């Protein structure tokens, strides 16, 4: 699907031209896209108990295996792929975070914690590991590949801090506040940076992000439990005051929405996660009409 929402023919490429002749395509492997940039995909393939990373250009059929990064099946990850114009180089990022006994931001800290930040350099064909201080955030269990805005990968993460207004349960467990943030990775400086949010987002409000018309946007339920989801758009990138409420979708069955692309002037294609159902679907948002389901898994 093009960025304007128009359909295109999907062609399955049968003759794969691999730079790495030792990598054998297996039709039974599980594939996950970890990043996308300029039509180039960073793909993780799992064949039995082995996890392999490849860079693949679907348009040309070219595929190059790159060094692997050890990732635990129980770890949460964020990942992305970007082009650094100053060095004419592609770089990838994989961050994994594992906490035993801590399934969500609302639970207490677990007994074991591990975090790794790895950066891939295409010209050098190697990974570099950053220290723990390079990523002072926590990952969501729904985190995955990045949302690309201005050629830079963005993710939703959260930060926990002690809440002095609430009494502690015991000496070892302190009450915490959870703040959700939008961060991006600057491959020029190889540092994480935060995107400014509206003032109301300073509270514990969870949201999803996407891109509409080239602008970063977020979807959220500001009242936590209402039947409406608001879609906000950052009209001027990097300017917190430019966040504008674009439209509101009312549906009691929707748990979350992720904007995918504009379809003409009056429609938006979105990925929907429904409440009390383990499934996702695509919907059109016609602005003046009710949502209509177009594809369902």
From TrEMBL:
Residues 34-264 form the F-box associated beta-propeller type domain. InterPro entries: F-box-assoc_dom_typ1, F-box-assoc_interact_dom, Gal_Oxase/kelch_b-propeller, SCF_F-box_component. Pfam families: FBA_1. It comes from Corchorus olitorius. This is F-box associated beta-propeller type 1 domain-containing protein.
